[in-house]
Amino acid sequence: MSRTKGTVEAEISKVITQWEKDYLGRGSVSVKADILRDMVIVTLRGVLTPAEYAVCGTREGMLSVKRVRADLVESGVEDLKRMVVDIAGEEVKSFFTDISTQTGERVMVFRLVKDLEKTFK
């Protein structure tokens, strides 16, 4: 049986949630993956802790939180890429991420070698 786009998106959301818990020690409030052309876009809500929000009150603190969080994700990026490849069946060409210190959301973008969305049409 062939998998649907929604099934693949749900599987990616699930493994990234588990990765956060295993690797970072806590998970986001919600994780949603969307496949768009050659990209898997993952939105994570509720990423920051109350202490991190407090530190983000100053520009220096905000930059510090962004830097530390980016370093944490980058240190585990090979695992993230491998999980996406295992589920999507397409090689990851590049990875981008950023976090909003105002909303506590993180966005991850996995650029794939091929257009994954076409395989579901």
What does this structure look like?
There is one protein chain. The chain is an alpha+beta fold and 121 residues long. It has a single domain (5-113), classed as 2-Layer Sandwich (Threonyl-tRNA Synthetase, Chain A, domain 2). Helix content is 45%, strand content 24%. It has four helices and four strands. It has helices spanning 5-24, 50-55, 59-75, 77-88; strands at residues 30-36, 39-45, 92-99, 106-112. Strands 1-2-4-3 form a four-stranded antiparallel beta sheet. It is elongated and about 50 Å long. The mean pLDDT is 95. This is DUF2294 domain-containing protein.
Q: What is the tally of helical segments?
A: 4
Indicate the CATH class. Alpha Beta
Sheet of most strands:
4 strands, antiparallel
The third-level CATH topology is Threonyl-tRNA Synthetase, Chain A, domain 2
